[in-house]
Amino acid sequence: MHAVRVDGIEVAYDRVGQGPPLVLAHGATTDARLWRPQVADLADEFTVVAWDEPGAGRSSDVPPSFVLADYARCLAAVIEDVGLGPAHVAGLSWGGTVVLELYRHHPELVRTLVLVDTYAGWKGSLPPAEVRSRVEGAERMLAVPAEEFAPTMPALFAGEPPAEAVRLLSLMSGDTRPQTLRNQLTNMAEADQRDLLPRIEVPTLLLWGELDTRSPVELVARPFLEAIPDATLVVLPGTGHFSNIEAPEPFNRTLREFCRARS
Fold first, then answer.
1. Closest C-alpha among 137, 224, 240 to residue 188
2. Whole-angstrom Cα distance, residue 222 to residue 107?
3. What is the reported pTM?
4. CB of 193 within 8 A of CB of 102?
5. 204 near 176, Cβ under 8 Å?
6. Other CB atoms closer than 10 Å to residue 95's CB: what's the count?
7. I want to staple 245 with a disulfide (CB 3.0 to 4.6 A). Which of 165, 182, 189, 233 is the partner?
8. Model confidence over 72-102: pLDDT tens digits?
9. Nearest-angstrom CA–CA distance, 94 and 96
10. Which of 168, 186, 174 is nearest to 149 (CA)?
11. Radius of gyration over every alpha carbon of the chain, rounded to an integer in angstroms
């Protein structure tokens, strides 16, 4: 494990392999372990970096005032700590929103963007009624007694998920901290990054699960494709929101080819 301190917050990350840096940002209720299939497969060609965002995994808690720009600042500190220059930066779901915010504030650290089943913030990608429904669902999860807190997100997979994926998600959700989820919820519900998309000047891969119902291709990925000047959309057949662990082989192959061609 590696770590960097940002304004008193310790941010932990894994670093494996050698080659151009590939930085991976996980989604809500997960941590660096979400990227195990990618770390194991891609470290032969890239320096793969998977962080535990502030408030998750081995990293420090976040204060209630922590905003999206603070997450971006911490991710920038990780890339700078790795010390290999601009990175291929990938983010899944909530992690993709963080990665977009990183680009807003620190474009010099980003070689390419890989946006996976993500959003330009919920406000920027979803109808208002859907945002309200998700906020209400998360609030119900947060209202239970501490000993019963076990957050689960619906519709993460298109079909029967691999048993190892289920076990891993269960472990990560069991380690989720209520304050972290509340902070992610507040930031995601309020974020609208549509203004940023036309200003992205690096090659961008949109990597989506065909059957993702949380961030549908037509509702979210297609507008990204239209707004980002140098964007490529790859849709993985038969997969859902967590396409990286539902279909790791085509996911990894697509990610590898995209980054290799732009390293």
1. 137
2. 23
3. 0.94
4. no
5. no
6. 27
7. 165
8. 999 999 999 999 999 999 999 999 999 999 9
9. 5
10. 174
11. 17
